[in-house]
TrEMBL record:
Its main location: membrane. One of its GO terms (cellular component) is endomembrane system. PROSITE patterns: PROKAR_LIPOPROTEIN (PS51257). Residues 10-141 form the Transmembrane protein 135 N-terminal domain. Signal peptide: none annotated. This is Transmembrane protein 135 N-terminal domain-containing protein. It is found in: Endomembrane system. InterPro entries: Tmem135, TMEM135_N. Keywords: Membrane, Transmembrane, Transmembrane helix. It comes from the Eukaryota. Belongs to the TMEM135 family. The chain crosses the membrane at residues 74-95, 101-118, 237-257, 277-296, 308-330, 350-369.
Length: 437
């Protein structure tokens, strides 16, 4: 058996990377074309769905804009795939070998930077947040796998609570009322909770005698605090349950059409109840804590929202979804960053979204090449789809000597090489590893 250094691998890009073809240009253009084809399918659905959701029939100019957006975004995806394989081969030529970082991270960073400049500038921040979210999950998996980190019990709930504390504080202070997050929070806790005391409704139902009808004079709701809390709990549960069940029904539409009895089965699903309970408890805890603080301090401070958000975070215990939690955490950091720039506390870094996209996607590509078992399964599926399964056709057994158990997820992959395109050194290595296939 041929043994190599733990830090580098002397094989060619064909032997390690594009095992399906010995020709570098053919490999990169094949992956680029596959990405473009899949990109057209993905972005056609995305842009057409958002046009449909806007509720307006697009005119000719808008149709042209949608079409050019679909082509531009697909070209961005194609460019990312094409440049990644190209940079992978060029890096091998320059370094003369493969190392832990030159197999995935470096070539990917170059490719990502070129590709993101092709994408529309308005889409770059959203893309950066999306990949940073997936990359943070991947880094967490990598740290746990290396035993640098032990999972903290209820760590997701702690992250969500801190996120809500920051998010609700931003909600009370921001002027950016067209922001999607602002509209979402307003729908959740109601218009009243963002009004300043001077704007409070003056007309209230006469206070009753019982605790049920009692409300603090500074409370924005017209009913008693307890009555309002129960109303919020009931209404938000119905909304949350209905929304989750409707989305599930739309996604399972072909299945329901084939067998209508599936609809009843779908509506009985516990995940809808859990989502309803999550939304209901979040809104109710937030409002109840705000009411309690008004009673305790006899004032209506914006800082109350921090404690209310922190406690409302417990609600995620009903619906523990790490993607949702991390996405909201990164979105919160994004809005706080922009508020910080607006207030003059933070500096605006030009091209920050493009850099963040490139860095986060490099982390994901490094994992996809070197340790796919630590990658989020849905992202691996996405890579398989856009590359026409080429991402699974790397010779990861040869990368195992770099110490990251690269072939752990696909131990039985056995590439068919063209013998006139492989080196004697690699032939010797193949001989030594015959039994492993
Ligand atoms: Zn090559
Ligand atoms: Zn109240």
């Amino acid at each position: 058996m041929v043994a190599f250094s733990k830090h580098y691998l002397p094989f060619s890009c064909y032997e390690v990377g594009h095992t399906w073809t010995p020709f570098c240009p053919s490999a990169s253009s094949g992956v680029g074309l596959s990405c473009f084809e899949e990109g057209l399918k993905i972005y056609s659905s995305v842009y057409l769905l958002s046009a449909l959701l806007s509720g307006k029939l697009p005119n000719i100019a808008q149709c042209k804009r949608i079409f050019s957006s679909i082509v531009q975004s697909s070209f961005f995806l194609a460019c990312n795939g094409f440049c990644f394989i190209g940079a992978f081969c060029i890096c091998r030529q320059i370094f003369g070998r493969f190392g832990v970082l030159s197999s995935g991270f470096f070539p990917s960073f170059i490719a990502n930077l070129i590709a993101i400049l092709v994408e529309r500038p308005t889409r770059r921040p959203a893309l950066a947040i999306y990949v940073t979210n997936v990359a943070s999950e991947t880094i967490y998996n990598q740290l746990v796998a290396r035993r640098f980190l032990t999972p903290i019990p209820h760590g997701d709930i702690i992250i969500f609570s801190l996120t809500l504390a920051g998010l609700f504080r931003w909600f009370q202070a921001t002027q950016d009322r067209n922001n999607f997050l602002f509209k979402l929070l307003r729908a959740l806790v109601g218009e009243g909770e963002i009004r300043s005391p001077s704007n409070l409704p003056t007309v209230k139902t006469p206070p009753g005698k019982g605790i049920w009808n009692k409300s603090h004079p500074l409370c924005p709701h017209t009913q008693g605090c307890l009555q309002n809390s129960f109303q919020v709990l009931f209404k938000r549960f119905l909304c949350g349950w209905g929304l989750h069940a409707s989305v599930s029904a739309i996604l399972s539409f072909p299945l329901i059409m084939r067998k209508p009895s599936n609809l009843l089965l779908l509506l009985k699903g516990m995940k809808h109840v859990r989502f309803g309970a999550f939304i209901a408890s979040l809104a109710t805890i937030y409002q109840a804590v705000c009411c309690a603080l008004r009673w305790l301090q006899d004032s209506n401070r914006k800082s109350h929202s921090i404690l209310a958000g922190l406690l409302a975070g417990i609600s995620v215990g009903f619906y523990r979804n790490s993607t949702l939690i991390l996405y909201l955490a990164w979105k919160t950091l994004e809005v706080l960053y922009y508020e910080g720039i607006e207030a003059g506390y933070l500096m605006k870094v030009p091209g920050f979204a493009s850099f963040l996209y490139s860095l986060s996607t490099s982390i994901l590509f490094h994992a996809a090449v070197m340790e796919p078992h630590n990658l989020k399964p849905s992202y691996w599926k996405f890579l398989m789809k856009i590359t026409g399964s080429r991402i699974s056709q790397l010779n990861r057994t040869s990368l195992d000597c770099l110490g990251l158990q690269s072939s752990k997820m696909l131990p039985n992959f056995n590439p068919e090489y063209e013998s006139n395109h492989i080196s004697d050194q690699f032939k010797l290595w193949l001989q030594g590893h015959k039994d492993e296939y």
